[in-house]
C-alpha cells in the first residue's frame, strides 16, 4: 500500500471506531426493549456485531481493497477511545433528546390518527348499526301488525265458513287433519330414529 492509502486507511478506521462507539451506545440504549427475552437478547447481539463487522470491513474494502493490518485495529481502537473520552456524554444526551422527540411525535401521530380516523370510523359504524337495528325493528313491528291485520279477519272468516259447513263435512275435515297430523308425527319420529342411529 502507498502512504496515501495507508493514511486514508488510518483515518477511515479511526472514524470507524468513533462510529462504532456511537452505534454501540445507541444499541445499548435500545436493547432495554428486548432484554426480557434471552433468545431475542442473544439474537440481536449476534446480528448487531455481524452487521457492524460488515460495515467496517466494507469501509476498509473501499479504502485499501480489504487488506487487514495490525494498525487497522489500533486505529479502530483509537477512534473508539476518542469517542468514549470526548463525545460519549454529549452523544448520550443527544440520543436521549432524540428518543424523547421521536416518542412525542409517535404519540402525537397515534393520537391524531385516533381522533381523526379511528374514532370517526367507529362512531360511523356504531351509528350505522344503530340505524340498521332501528329500521329492522320498525320493519318487524310493521310486519307483525300487517300479519295481525290480515290473519285475524281471515281466521274469523274461515272459522265462520267452517261453522256454516255441514256437520258431516266438518267431521271429514277433522279426520283429514288428524290423518295428516299422524303422518307428520310419524315422519318426525322416523327422522329422529335415523339421526340417533347415525350417532
UniProtKB/TrEMBL annotation:
<dbReference type="InterPro" id="IPR019074">
    <property type="entry name" value="YabQ"/>
</dbReference>
<feature type="transmembrane region" description="Helical">
    <location>
        <begin position="142"/>
        <end position="162"/>
    </location>
</feature>
<dbReference type="Pfam" id="PF09578">
    <property type="entry name" value="Spore_YabQ"/>
</dbReference>
<feature type="transmembrane region" description="Helical">
    <location>
        <begin position="39"/>
        <end position="59"/>
    </location>
</feature>
<keyword id="KW-0472">Membrane</keyword>
<feature type="transmembrane region" description="Helical">
    <location>
        <begin position="6"/>
        <end position="27"/>
    </location>
</feature>
<feature type="transmembrane region" description="Helical">
    <location>
        <begin position="71"/>
        <end position="94"/>
    </location>
</feature>
<keyword id="KW-0812">Transmembrane</keyword>
<feature type="transmembrane region" description="Helical">
    <location>
        <begin position="115"/>
        <end position="136"/>
    </location>
</feature>
<protein>
    <submittedName>
        <fullName>Spore cortex biosynthesis protein YabQ</fullName>
    </submittedName>
</protein>
<keyword id="KW-1133">Transmembrane helix</keyword>
Amino acid at each position: 500500500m502507498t502512504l496515501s492509502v495507508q493514511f486514508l486507511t488510518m483515518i477511515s478506521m479511526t472514524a470507524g471506531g468513533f462510529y462504532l462507539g456511537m452505534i454501540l451506545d445507541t444499541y445499548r440504549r435500545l436493547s432495554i426493549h428486548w432484554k426480557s427475552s434471552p433468545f431475542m437478547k442473544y439474537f440481536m447481539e449476534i446480528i448487531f456485531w455481524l452487521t457492524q463487522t460488515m460495515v467496517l470491513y466494507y469501509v476498509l474494502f473501499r479504502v485499501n481493497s480489504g487488506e487487514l493490518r495490525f494498525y487497522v485495529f489500533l486505529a479502530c481502537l483509537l477512534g473508539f477511545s476518542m469517542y468514549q473520552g470526548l463525545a460519549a456524554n454529549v452523544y448520550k444526551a443527544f440520543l436521549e433528546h432524540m428518543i424523547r422527540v421521536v416518542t412525542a411525535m409517535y404519540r402525537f401521530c397515534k393520537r391524531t390518527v385516533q381522533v381523526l380516523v379511528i374514532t370517526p370510523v367507529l362512531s360511523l359504524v356504531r351509528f350505522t348499526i344503530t340505524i340498521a337495528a332501528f329500521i329492522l325493528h320498525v320493519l318487524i313491528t310493521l310486519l307483525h301488525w300487517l300479519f295481525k291485520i290480515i290473519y285475524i279477519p281471515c281466521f274469523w272468516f274461515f272459522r265462520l265458513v267452517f261453522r256454516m259447513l255441514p256437520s258431516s263435512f266438518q267431521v271429514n275435515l277433522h279426520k283429514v287433519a288428524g290423518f295428516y297430523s299422524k303422518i307428520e308425527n310419524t315422519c318426525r319420529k322416523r327422522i329422529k330414529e335415523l339421526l340417533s342411529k347415525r350417532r
